[in-house]
Write a structure and sequence with these properties.
The structure is a homodimer of 354-residue chains. Chain A is an alpha/beta fold and 354 residues long. Helices cover 43% and strands 14% of the residues of chain A. The first copy, chain A, has 14 helices and 13 strands. The first copy, chain A, has helices at residues 5-12, 16-24, 31-44, 51-58, 72-75, 79-94, 109-118, 134-142, 166-179, 212-227, 245-256, 270-282, 300-304, 314-326, and strands at residues 63-67, 98-101, 124-126, 146-148, 159-164, 185-190, 199-200, 236-240, 264-267, 292-294, 309-311, 336-339, 342-344. In chain A, helix 8 (134-142) links the parallel strand 3 (124-126) and strand 4. The longest helix of chain A has 16 residues, at 79-94. At the A-B interface, helix 4, helix 5, helix 6, strand 2 and helix 7 of A face helix 4, helix 5, helix 6, strand 2 and helix 7 of B. Strand 2 of chain A pairs antiparallel with strand 2 of chain B, so a sheet runs across the interface. Chain A binds a DNA duplex (30 and 30 nucleotides) through helix 2 and helix 4.
Amino acid sequence: MRPTLQTVADAIGVSRSTVSNAYSRPDQLSADLRDRILAAAAALGYAGPDPTARSLRKRRAGAIGMLFTASLSFAFTDPYAVGYLRGLAEAAEQARTGLLLLPLSIEDDAAAVAAVNEAVVDGFCVYCMPDWHPALDALAARGLPVVSGQRRSSDGPASAFVGIDEASATRAAGEHLMALGHRRVAVIGDYLSVAPTIGPALLSSPADVAYYTSRERLRGYQSAFAAAGVEWPTVTTVNVPGNCRDDGAAAAAHLLDRAPRPTAIAALSDIVALGVLDALRARGLQPGRDVSVVGFDDIPEAAAENLTTVHQPASERGRRSGELLLDPPADPADRTVVLPTRLVVRATTGPAPS
Amino acid sequence: MRPTLQTVADAIGVSRSTVSNAYSRPDQLSADLRDRILAAAAALGYAGPDPTARSLRKRRAGAIGMLFTASLSFAFTDPYAVGYLRGLAEAAEQARTGLLLLPLSIEDDAAAVAAVNEAVVDGFCVYCMPDWHPALDALAARGLPVVSGQRRSSDGPASAFVGIDEASATRAAGEHLMALGHRRVAVIGDYLSVAPTIGPALLSSPADVAYYTSRERLRGYQSAFAAAGVEWPTVTTVNVPGNCRDDGAAAAAHLLDRAPRPTAIAALSDIVALGVLDALRARGLQPGRDVSVVGFDDIPEAAAENLTTVHQPASERGRRSGELLLDPPADPADRTVVLPTRLVVRATTGPAPS
DNA sequence: GCGGCGTACTGTATCGATCCAGAAGGGTTC
DNA sequence: GAACCCTTCTGGATCGATACAGTACGCCGC
């Protein structure tokens, strides 16, 4: 049997509490006794207080949980998500806190709920989860502090927000397209339709989208387009099941292989936008001349491929989220952080072809 | 006060055990009673059994710990590490297990040890840690299963290995350089000298390096060079404090700004090799013609920049590590997995200039 | 009518620590 | 030398659950 505090205590004839103090409160006992205790512990192969038991008694887990888009492994394929994670990890590291990534299998909601309920953490960060996901309800039920990047009507008072103004970010991008004279436009994004398939989303309104980030970004485009007289029903929306390059290319095919093709394509993420660029090149079309393309996020690859996009501070978003979670400000007003975004115009947007 | 099992039990006059069974073993009580219990729990705001207490009693944490190079946030800047993490996350997800990233501050060893001792996990994965790091001793003391990518003399019997044959991987790369006629060669890597500074490492032998991965990779180069008559003392070694592009460029400067400069530079990672390429370009030198450069890892950027490198399967390494940790094979022989590597010759190596 | 059996639920022990009120002992103060 | 303090250590209560042996009871067979 593995040794416990009691084992060590018995070995040298002191009380359990004293051994505990030897580890956790060295000022509570003489240096001499402490040395003897640690020596005895080493001899017995006792590695120090059991973290689980300690967590139970201290009511502190020493870790924060991270709830991520769909599949956990997927998070590591998106450079933007990696940037966010880096920031979050920085904050956790600073506070000497672990970072628990939760397995959220997309097919199995019950497993996701179980993951939330079994997580030994002091709080949660939520990032890019569809609004309807049952894990979010489970999370609210646990009553732990939550920092989210998406507002949700049912958010409790313990919930904080760190994010950007998604709608005004895409409004700027939309105005850019309108100013260039584009009138036949399309938008590609994930969670636009319920079914996880590549194809037209047939959205009567952005409000129908059940995923905060996509919904808000669509709203921004909608208002920019409307201001230039381009009404929503004339805008083609295409859904992608995953936020990845291949899906972006496949979705673009739906738009490019029909006439008349749109003169501008707005993707709700850079990864998807890069896929659109692939599709253009495959058809001998030049981005920015034949078809304009806008992304979102400004990941490193976007600069490398000269993609016009909306910049948002990925790692800072993660870092601020972590800080807010680990050290919540007393004033509720400080629990909402809106970070700045900016339109980065590069080579993939240009005047609409006449 | 937050409700507990007892609160719910008292509310409807059953025992604590029965409420526990309602959640964990539904077959142990009538469906009717179970419904009443869950209803009462919902009314009281009880979100289900406390994960910490459950972990203590069940002797299972439901998470695996990850010990990473130096700083946690740093891990997310290296595409190879991200690939490894993706694989590990995949395995964890499959097993419905969380992934706890531990904060290993590089300046503060005591904090790192504390992080290991306080981690509520069922096992650990170790990746890219210097051999001497005290956290590794703390880890061994905890007696939990460990899967490591580096062999260490003090590894316990519970320890498994998933990795590559580092030395033979670099031997292949070294032979490639020798076959191209290079005789004045240099190696850049991290942990080559004790001090975390950019500069010559002054290594009398690879055996002096206290970091498994770098040591083995150097050994491979040493043997390839020696076979071609290039003795170790004539090889220049340069240390980089961090595994990043800028450090690689700065280290290359030490080699390129003196005469005679080496005709080939081997970097122990792609990230550093890409920095070397930057330094070459900054001096108007052409990689593969004026100076040959070899990397290690074969990250996506390596292909994009046509870097000759050694491919190793990043995410598979992570995935196999996770699988081995979560489902340890009975036969100790199966606890060692050596994955294949392969030299990928691209444009940054060429015949030695005469 | 009684043993045997299965189902539904109870109650105590236990997981491995920390908290905290209090006791023992030595030294200081007046 | 009584009162007081400080340091050092103790022991019972507690954190919130699960394990497991045991009880109560209905039902079946004979």
